[in-house]
Amino acid sequence: MSMIRRVASIAVLCMAGGFSYLVASMAMDRSPPIVYESATALTPEVPVGGMLEVQFTVFRSRICPVSSKRFVRDASGTTHAIPAWTVPSQILAGRETFARQIIVPPTVVPGPAVYGVSLDYACNVFHRLGFPIHVDSPPVNFQIVPGALPLLPYPDENSKCCSPE
To answer: Are 35 and 84 in contact (CB under 8 A)?
Structure first.
């Protein structure tokens, strides 16, 4: 009987040790799954309400679920949130160069500005429980210039586009 107890105790200790190792390895996993190699504004001057095009070169060491926040900080220091884009499902690990187009909000103040991306990766259970791996893109500096926003034509009363008929 004591032999069975001894084997059971050893088995329980091994399982506890394995579980402890698993939890510790997840908690210590802080290596970012993406490294930004470059971030460049392809359109260094953008009118208010215009389109900023940014090119990123990144190296992905692994693919993990991510939540992103994008922003433009204008000359007054105000941070404007930019809607997130949809990430394609066929992203692969390795080096990649890609471009993103961002519509500069019409409420920005002209002058020097910065575009940035803040990413929170959840590569394991520990990260999903509230401890994600945080990565910020390099700041992308560009200039916002005053510009006339395109005005949409206002339908007149003879227009058929908006009549309830």
So the answer is: no
Domain spans, the chain: 1-30, 32-145
Kindly tell me the sign of the dihedral angle through the C-alpha atoms of 103, 109, 112, 114. negative
DSSP assignment of 51-62 equals EEEEEEEEEESS
How far apart, in Å, are the Cα atoms of 78 and each of 39, 41, 69?
21, 20, 15
> What does the pLDDT look like over 36-93, one tens digit per residue?
999 999 999 999 999 999 999 999 999 999 999 999 999 999 999 998 765 655 678 8
Instruction: Return d(Cα 120, Cα 126) in angstroms, integer.
Output: 13
Q: Which residue has 């993406």 as its token pair?
A: 34
Residue 106 · residue 149 · CB < 8 Å: yes
Residue tagged 């088995």 (tokens): 11
CATH (residue range 32-145): 2.60.40.3880
Rounded to two decimals, what is the model's pTM?
A: 0.74
* Closest to 68 (Cα-Cα) out of 112, 18, 132: 132
